[in-house]
Amino acid sequence: MTSEPRSLTDTDTDPVSGPPPGCPAHGLGPGGLRRLYGPDAEDLGVLYESLREEHGSVAPALLHDDVPMWVVLGHAENIHMVRSSSVYTRDSRIWTPLLDGTVKPDHPLMPHIAWQPICSHAEGDEHQRLRAAVTAAMDTIDHRSMRRHIGRYTQSLVNRFCERGRADLVSQFAEHLPMAVMCQILGMPEEYDDRMVQAARDALKGTETAIQSHTYVMEALSRLTTRRRALPDDDFTSHLVTHPAGLTDDEVREHLRLVLFAAYEATANLLANALRMVLTEPGFRAQLSGGQMTVPEAIEQSLWDEPPFSTVFGYYAKQDTELGGQRIRKGDGLLFAPAPGNLDPRIRPDLSASMQGNRSHLAFGGGPHECPGQDIGRAIADVGVDALLMRLPDVQLDCPEEDLRWRSSIASRHLVALPVRFEPKPQQDVDVAPRHGAPPVQQSGWPTGTRRSDPTPTAEPRPAVPPMPVPMPAAPEPVRGPGVWRRLMRWWRGE
Ligand code: HEM
Asked: Spans of biased composition, class Polar residues (predicted)?
């Protein structure tokens, strides 16, 4: 049901006294609005659906300190907003609650709110200048060698735990792989270690040591900027430094920070979510092992069902307007919300239906700010999950599914841990393509990248001159799906 057009600052309920105890509205904030924080917001997914029921595709709600904000719940409304740059901006400096002092400097969401000199907050010519440098630097990334690096890092991470037969795929895999790959892409592979992963995790969680951890990461990025300014190389940072847009050292550092944190957090979430789905959802597992679904398709389904960023903070109205039947005033703030937007019943009347082949989810945003790193995020997830499942084909969840825990914030929802078990496996050379780790015969391997129904013959002739010798697997080999050889070769070539 869509409510009558109303303004975000309208107050239907006495903001001071509020509803009496026992009233169903008890627990609501000023204006009878729902809070996106605190005890009433423990399950934001449920809360978004209540808001959709009550208000339709755009709902008024309250952030911490009861600061008003629209939540955009509809798929079409989210797309319309991010594409309408003449009406909405990402520059928070026009946000009314910030201008009138309702949002205090110590507001818990300030790191998301405060304007910074980065492309995410810029618009118009300035956005184009900064974004052009970022996308040009990304365009220089050689995707074949990047995929090879992803495969190698996956191999070495799996080597760390494969002999134990047990692992936590969040802290030992999903949180490491994106950091290792991003340090390589940025041009500081030597900075990737447990300390860097821990610092990034800590900085994003906002613990007492968050500032220290943030400083640790920023110091590494500053050293890198200085080194590449003095002597450019052929990496992302060097191309950012030398781009004709003429970024200052501060701008380079801030964009390295943006890219590193965005990539780390979002891709770690995507990996963990996709692995969780593969391990716990019987339909998923059956489709993967039955060959009706490939790993990239599983990743895409995960981007629909659990987008790594549930919401993106924020968009601000540059003029009075209307969205989803609501009256939006100049200076109002709106949450771009991929999580509820992807579940909009108008585009997904049946949530259990597969979205295979449909990439119109909101996980990477849209419009001028659409994520420029999505191919990198997808590659890390595709190659990482594929290679991990090749190494551990018998991997299973090591706890009841109900024991899995999430940590939620407005911006994202992280799986805390994903404990798994498998038959212990020997280490493998990180420089060769992953191969099945000799599971018991009845637990045949996952046809991870190729559909089992592919008419590809099992035994393919070797190419005349293979780029590198691909070692034959140690005996005995588990049963493999057709096309594995071709897939190994493709993987090795970084395709
Ligand atoms: C699964 C992985 C990822 C997801 C889900 C994701 C999602 C997003 C989203 C939702 C936005 C905001 C769009 C908007 O404001 O409308 C964004 C922006 C951005 N992302 Fe990603 N991202 C991912 C990976 C990456 C990677 C790997 C990189 C860099 C290598 C990256 C770099 C950026 C940058 C620079 C922006 C700001 C663009 C702008 O404002 O013009 N992201 N991303």
From this structure: 1-10
Arithmetic mean of pLDDT over the chain: 84
Of residues 468 and 310, which shows the higher confidence score? 310
**Ligand 1, atom 20: closest residue by C-alpha:** 371
Q: Rounded CA gap, 444 and 56, in Å?
A: 47
Pocket test for ligand 1, best of 78, 267, 371, 380 (most atoms within 8 A of CB): 371
Ligand 1 lined by 258 (C-beta under 6 Å) = yes
Averaged pLDDT, 219-224:
97
Q: Which residues, other chains included, contact 416 with Cβ-Cβ below 8 Å and sequence gap of 6+?
A: 170, 404, 405, 406, 407
Distance from C-alpha of 425 to C-alpha of 434, rounded to nearest angstrom: 12
Q: Where are the domains of the chain?
A: 130-493
Q: Which residues pair with 167 in a beta bridge?
A: 420
Residue type for 285, please? Answer: R
Q: pTM of the predicted model, to two decimals?
A: 0.85
61 CA distance to ligand 1 centroid (A)?
A: 25
What's the pLDDT band for 8 if we cut at 50, 70, 90? low
Q: Which fold has domain 130-493?
A: Cytochrome p450 (1.10.630)
